[in-house]
Design goal:
heterodimer, A: about 450 residues, mainly alpha, about 0% strand, rod-shaped, B: about 50 residues, alpha+beta, two-stranded antiparallel ribbon, elongated
């Protein structure tokens, strides 16, 4: 029968372990897939930004051409050279953005791999916490029966002596009852001492400390992951900002063109015929193509610096998060130590208060015991006297009276014992320890 | 040859990461993050971390 129980417990435990192990595997896969999807997002978003920026750049050049009276979109041979020049500038611009996007994708990949690594660490810590709880349960399963084996016979003995004491009171042997109650007190102290030793055993304290440390590290790693995730947004913003910077050149270009257009209009009223003679293509080349070429060339030259900046941003961001993490670890540890000290002190204070209360209660119990004994003695005396007075006919009646009074006193004593049990320092200590774990 | 991220299977559906646009990827990431948080919470509860 015992074997069957052991087997069912083992099966249950193994089932639980399998569930947890499957869950951790699922978590690991989910983290890996999430990192992959985020890498894909960074890559695709980068490509889309490049495509949009390149199109906008090309369109703005064509619009500028239109403003200069050049119909570049028309398939006329006379504009082929200008179109080729625009295509070359746009191609250089696209190439620069692609290089920058390559650096951004690489940095995003490194970043996601770092987050994946932190996620892995976090899941390992969670698994360790789970194992520590198992270890604690195992310790309880192995050692609790030993404690019970020690305390149970004592409790049985205590109960037997209590019964004998009650019997002694019933029989009027007050001296004997006093001796027996003292024995009871002694046994009760032995039980309390054994239970206290169990709660404070080195191994259990070590397991609880390990649990505490792992929980603090788990919370820290989670905090680091949350902070590291924010770097992804910063990198995306930096990349978009760089692309926008190129577009700013384009906007400046357009503004210049618009201004020239207005100037030309004003001038047009004065000498329209002169302006007509101006070669629009040459003007477009001077006002648009050349500055655009210069801008794009400058932009291209700045790409390695921009790529380095992205890499530095990731490096600094991560080192900041992990460094901050170290501070947080110290803070968490300090806080944990302070909390533990506080808990221990509080527990000590509470224990002092409880001890004082117990002292009061014990004194109360002793007084009540004395009162009960005195009262019982008095009652016995009264009963005896009453019995003597009423002879045997009334003796039974006297004993009934005595019994009912003794029962009432016993109930009163039990009530006091229950009160004492409720404010037992052991149970308070245990609760405080459990709260301190989280 | 550019590195491809390939296929990903999530909640029984197959996603080709290299063929999706950024909006579709964003939607997928949000769903995946929700699922990850759910799994993480379950693992935490099973490991005695309740807050």
């Amino acid at each position: 029968m015992e074997n069957n129980n052991t087997n069912s417990v083992t099966l249950e435990q193994s089932d639980d372990l399998k569930k947890i192990s499957d869950l951790f595997k699922e978590l690991k896969d989910a983290s890996k897939d999430l990192a992959k999807a985020k890498m894909a997002y960074a890559k695709t978003k980068g490509k889309e930004t490049i495509s949009r920026s390149t199109n906008q750049f090309k369109n703005s050049m064509y619009t500028a051409g239109k403003n200069f009276g050049l119909k570049l979109q028309e398939n006329a041979n006379k504009y082929q050279e200008t179109r080729n020049e625009i295509d070359a500038i746009v191609a250089e611009y696209e190439l620069s953005l692609n290089t920058l996007q390559g650096a951004y994708a690489q940095v995003s990949e490194q970043h996601q791999l770092k987050i994946q690594e932190l996620n892995g660490k976090k899941d390992e810590l969670l698994a360790e916490i789970h194992m520590t709880i198992d270890e604690r349960e195992q310790f309880m399963q192995e050692n609790l029966p030993d404690l019970i084996n020690k305390t149970d016979p004592l409790k049985t003995e205590q109960k037997n002596i209590q019964d004998k004491a009650a019997e002694a009171i019933k029989n009027g042997d007050i001296e004997e009852a006093r001796k027996l109650l003292d024995k009871c007190e002694n046994i009760k102290n032995q039980i309390t001492s054994l239970e206290k030793d169990f709660d404070n055993s080195q191994e259990l304290v070590q397991i609880d400390k390990k649990w505490d440390d792992l929980s603090a590290e788990y919370k820290l790693t989670k905090y680091q992951i949350d902070e590291a995730q924010k770097i992804a947004t910063q990198l995306e913003e930096e990349f978009s900002l760089n692309c926008d910077e190129a577009l700013t050149h384009k906007q400046e270009l357009l503004a210049k063109v618009e201004k020239n257009k207005m100037f030309d209009k004003i001038k047009g009223f004065l000498s329209r015929s002169v302006l007509k003679k101006v070669n629009s293509a040459q003007k477009f080349n001077k006002e648009v193509i050349e500055p655009a070429k210069k801008n794009v060339s400058e932009f291209s030259k700045s790409i390695p610096q921009k790529a380095t900046k992205l890499k530095e941003q990731l490096k600094n961001g991560l080192s900041n998060v992990l460094g901050k993490g170290k501070e947080v670890v110290e803070m968490t540890k300090d806080k944990a130590r302070q909390t533990k000290d506080f808990v221990v002190n509080k527990a000590r204070d509470t224990r002092d208060v409880i001890d004082a209360k117990i002292q009061d209660v014990s004194e109360g119990i002793s007084t009540t015991k004395d009162y009960i004994s005195g009262k019982a003695y008095q009652t016995l005396d009264e009963a005896y006297e009453f019995g003597k007075r009423t002879k045997s006919k009334a003796r039974n009646c006297a004993i009934d009276k005595l019994e009912s009074t003794a029962n009432r006193f016993n109930e009163k004593a039990q009530e006091l014992r229950n009160k004492e049990q409720q404010i037992n320092p052991n149970s308070i200590n245990k609760n405080t320890q459990e709260q301190g774990l989280f | 040859m550019e590195n491809e991220l390939g296929i990903l299977i999530f909640e029984g559906k197959m996603y080709n990461l290299d063929k999706m646009n950024s909006e579709e990827l964003k939607e997928l990431i949000i769903k995946m993050e929700k699922n990850y948080k759910k799994l993480e919470k379950e693992a935490e509860i099973r490991s005695g971390i309740y807050n």
